[in-house]
UniProtKB/TrEMBL annotation:
Residues 35-192 form the NOG1 N-terminal helical domain. InterPro entries: G_FEOB_dom (IPR030389), GTP-bd (IPR006073), NOG1_N (IPR041623), NOG1_Rossman_fold_dom (IPR010674), P-loop_NTPase (IPR027417). It comes from Trifolium subterraneum. Residues 198-256 form the FeoB-type G domain. Residues 264-320 form the Nucleolar GTP-binding protein 1 Rossman-fold domain. The lineage of its organism: Eukaryota, Viridiplantae, Streptophyta, Embryophyta, Tracheophyta. Pfam families: FeoB_N, NOG1, NOG1_N. It comes from the Eukaryota. This is OBG-type G domain-containing protein. The keyword Nucleotide-binding applies. One of its GO terms (molecular function) is GTP binding. Keywords: GTP-binding, Nucleotide-binding.
Length: 398
């Protein structure tokens, strides 16, 4: 009995190390890469099978001569072991899956886009609830078994307790498999290196962003897949002066309110909102992409105003098509004047580079300007990093 009580106290040490999913002590927001550190979750059926096998192997404490006492000691220890083998993995998962509020904002956005708002916390909460239920039922039946007065009673309470603990776990074990799927999904997310300057290509759908990623990349870009879309996102690398940079396209933006945007568009906004990227904004004035120049101009103005802190370069793509078939569009957009639109139609925004992947027009200039932009982005990242180090140092001194 004393041995059993000792085991129970050890199991429940520090109140089972409760994991509050809403409020935890404040700490520094993690750098990106938390998804790759998620614990490996075992299938619930494997956890249950392993727990039952290990519990059955537990024997009575040596030196107990009385048969009834030996049987109730063994039964209590086996039920306690079964409870531990089920509860400890659940506790490990709950403790080692990060609180969403401590993640990098970009990773928080990916969780919401992939799983839906609140689902991550809901599943972790259910896993913790299952752990508490198993601990409660396990302690209750181990205690009952320890109070048995005969060998037969101890055997019956062991059988009954095992069935009830197993049923308690089995009833809700699906949440463990839900957590397993969450871990697999998040761990497979593409990883962005925050310390490597990144060029992000932005624009409406089908304006030529992917073609420009191929042109700018040193080597073949890789396709990065996100769970909420069947469309892969191209990620390439640019190497010059022995330095490595990242270049990526983003899903196209349409002219609509942010609340009406789909998950693909929200991914683009998440990249711009939370990652230290330089922007290469791509305009297609040829009439070939499916989004009118007036709509593109409206989108461009909105994004430019929303993210004024980003280093920025404008490109007019498909320049070869512009020369052969110039198109003039009327606009009913009250936010645009006809003069603004006509100016935009001729050459895009001020300072934009005309580029044609087909004829190679402007490609050399584009690469030079991109190299300059990424060097500036590198300096910007270093400044931000140095300022963060100073802030941490100042806070520690206080």
């Amino acid at each position: 009995m004393k041995q059993y009580l000792l085991d129970s106290r050890q199991t429940e040490k520090k109140g089972a190390l409760e994991h509050n999913l809403i409020e935890k002590p404040s700490r520094t927001i993690e750098s990106i890469g938390a998804f790759q550190k998620l614990p490996v979750v075992q299938p619930s059926i494997d956890i249950l099978g392993s727990a039952l096998r290990k519990a059955r192997r537990v024997s009575a404490t040596k030196g107990i001569v009385n048969i009834a006492k030996r049987e109730k000691n063994k039964g209590a220890k086996q039920l306690d072991a079964l409870m531990k083998e089920l509860a400890v993995p659940l506790r490990t998962y709950v403790e080692n899956f990060p609180n969403k509020t401590h993640l990098h904002p970009y990773e928080r956005s990916l969780i919401e886009l992939t799983l839906g708002d609140g689902y991550y916390e809901k599943v972790l909460g259910k896993v913790d609830g299952l752990r508490k239920r198993v601990v409660s039922v396990g302690k209750e039946h181990a205690s009952l078994c320890a109070k048995s007065t005969t060998k037969r009673e101890a055997e019956e309470r062991l059988i009954e307790g095992t069935k009830i603990i197993e049923a308690s776990f089995d009833q809700e074990r699906k949440v463990v498999d839900d957590l397993l799927n969450i871990a697999k999904t998040l761990r497979a997310m593409p990883v962005i290196n925050l310390e490597t300057p990144t060029l992000c290509l932005v624009g409406a759908p089908n304006v030529g962003k992917s073609s420009l990623v191929h042109v700018l990349s040193t080597g073949k870009p890789e396709i990065c897949n996100y769970p909420f879309t069947t469309r892969g996102i191209l990620m390439g690398h640019i190497i010059f002066n022995h330095q490595k940079f990242q270049v990526t396209d983003t899903p196209g933006l349409l002219k609509r309110h942010d609340d009406d945007r789909n998950n693909l568009e929200k991914l683009t906004l998440a990249v711009l909102s939370h990652l230290p990227t330089a922007v290469l904004y791509v305009h297609d004035l040829s009439g070939e992409c499916g989004t009118s120049p007036s709509a593109q101009f409206s989108i461009y103005k909105e994004i430019r105003e929303k993210f004024p802190e980003h280093l920025w370069l404008d490109v007019v793509s498909k320049a070869d098509l512009l020369k052969s078939s110039p198109v003039i569009y009327a606009t009913d957009d009250r936010d645009l004047t006809q003069h603004e639109l006509e100016k935009y139609l001729k050459s895009g925004p001020d300072g934009a580079i005309n580029v044609s992947v087909t004829t190679q027009e402007g490609v050399h200039e584009l690469k030079q300007r991109v190299h300059e932009l990424l060097n500036l982005q590198m300096a910007k990242i270093k400044d931000i990093s140095n300022n963060q180090v100073k802030d941490i140092s100042n806070n520690q001194e206080k």
